[in-house]
């Protein structure tokens, strides 16, 4: 392969990786647009419907633990990877991501159908997420933190635009046909799998078990290394553990508000259109937050703890303040600040993971990060659902 073709294929991977982030980042907010409609249509509760919606994001992350950690540490992942490569599995994942919404548009007559069909995008995004992240890290190496932080902005472009898109599609074509079109658009994620080009010669994704024979003598094994090696990454890399904890807390805060932001806006007197725009302001803030991280990485001025802790505090303060106002423009400004801090923190975490982990713990560490974020999505959906019932959102 010529140098020119190698460079083109590398940037094609970036383009379709960003498309995957665009859809994955925006579907949580897009589901918030559908929430009240689904609750009334299915005669269900906000807690159940919100839980069903958060399931797709949770599965996308939780699947990483059972599927990707290593051959020896994850029997399911080892079985699949004996017969299929990353490109094939990620391409199938892109197909499942769109299929879930198409099935939602055709077959859903009960909230339990949402649980089933919205698990398909979760499985699909789970099959795409870690391979595309690892391949991007391999092909850009030292430039990965800057490339990843810039790519993260597409996640928040999705947050800004997908609620408007799904609202337009369902208003223009009806609920069922609108979801069919939305699912078909999500099939663009298939290309993220197709563009997973072979890694450079000699590159391999190392197992965290390989460290036993190459780096650490048996006498220096911790209890975690011997018996709970699933969690050896945070034990061996405490800076990673601290940043991961802050990142997981941020995802919990985000998911607690993402589904119910439109309902919250309507509950304090905003129209449904203005309430949807709250997500747009948050998404725009996330874009600027990601760009800010890109500039800090580019000029080598980024600190992992300040990049995670300060935005988490700012995010919490902005969201707590938002419940005390009924002015649209001030609420929108607070959503912008919340989105900025969320985008800043998430871009920092994604960019720093390869820096904070050794090559032996990289794959496992990314999988653990995705898994714990999935747990946060689930808890956020449940707790925000119960909160909405208590406060009549």
Automatic annotation (TrEMBL):
Alphabetic keyword roster: Membrane, Transmembrane, Transmembrane helix
A Pfam family per the record: MFS_1
Regions crossing the membrane: 12-28, 48-69, 89-108, 114-135, 147-166, 178-196, 240-264, 276-297, 309-337, 343-362
Keyword Acetylation in annotation: no
Keyword Aminoacyl-tRNA synthetase: no
Molecular function via GO: monocarboxylic acid transmembrane transporter activity
Protein name per UniProt: Monocarboxylate transporter 14
UniProt source species: Holothuria leucospilota
Source species taxonomy: Eukaryota, Metazoa, Echinodermata, Eleutherozoa, Echinozoa
């Amino acid at each position: 392969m010529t140098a020119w073709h190698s460079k083109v294929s590398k940037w094609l991977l970036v383009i379709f990786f960003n498309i995957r982030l665009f859809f994955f980042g925006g579907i949580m907010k897009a589901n918030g647009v559908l929430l009240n409609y689904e609750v009334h249509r299915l005669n269900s509760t906000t807690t159940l419907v919100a839980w069903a919606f958060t399931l797709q994001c949770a599965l996308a992350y939780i699947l990483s633990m059972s599927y990707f950690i290593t051959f020896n540490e994850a029997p399911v992942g080892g079985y699949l990877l004996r017969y299929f490569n990353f490109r094939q599995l990620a391409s199938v994942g892109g197909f499942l991501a769109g299929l879930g919404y198409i099935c939602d548009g055709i077959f859903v007559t009960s909230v339990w159908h949402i649980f089933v069909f919205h698990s398909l995008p979760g499985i699909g995004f789970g099959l795409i997420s870690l391979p595309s992240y690892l391949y991007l890290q391999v092909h850009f190496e030292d430039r990965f933190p800057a490339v990843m932080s810039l790519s993260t902005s597409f996640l928040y472009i999705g947050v800004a635009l997908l609620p408007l898109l799904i609202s337009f599609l369902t208003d223009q074509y009806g609920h069922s046909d609108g979801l069919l079109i939305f699912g078909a658009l999500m099939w663009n994620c298939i290309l993220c799998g197709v563009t997973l080009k072979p890694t450079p010669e000699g590159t391999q994704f190392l197992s965290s078990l390989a460290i036993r024979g190459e780096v650490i003598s048996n006498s220096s094994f911790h209890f975690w290394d011997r018996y709970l090696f699933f969690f050896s990454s945070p034990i061996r890399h405490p800076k990673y553990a601290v940043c991961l904890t802050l990142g997981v807390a941020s995802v919990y805060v985000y998911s607690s508000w993402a589904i119910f932001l439109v309902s919250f806006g309507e509950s304090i007197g905003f129209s449904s259109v203005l309430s949807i725009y709250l997500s747009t302001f948050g998404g725009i803030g996330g874009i600027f937050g990601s760009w800010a991280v890109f500039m800090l990485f580019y000029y080598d001025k980024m600190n992992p703890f300040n990049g995670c802790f300060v935005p988490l505090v700012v995010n919490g303060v902005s969201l707590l303040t938002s419940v005390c106002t009924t002015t649209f423009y001030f609420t929108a400004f607070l959503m912008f600040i919340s989105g900025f801090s969320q985008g800043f923190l998430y871009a920092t975490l994604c960019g720093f993971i390869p820096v904070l982990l050794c090559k032996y713990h990289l794959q496992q560490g990314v999988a653990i990060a995705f898994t714990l974020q999935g747990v946060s999505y689930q808890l956020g959906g449940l707790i925000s659902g119960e909160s909405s019932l208590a406060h009549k959102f």
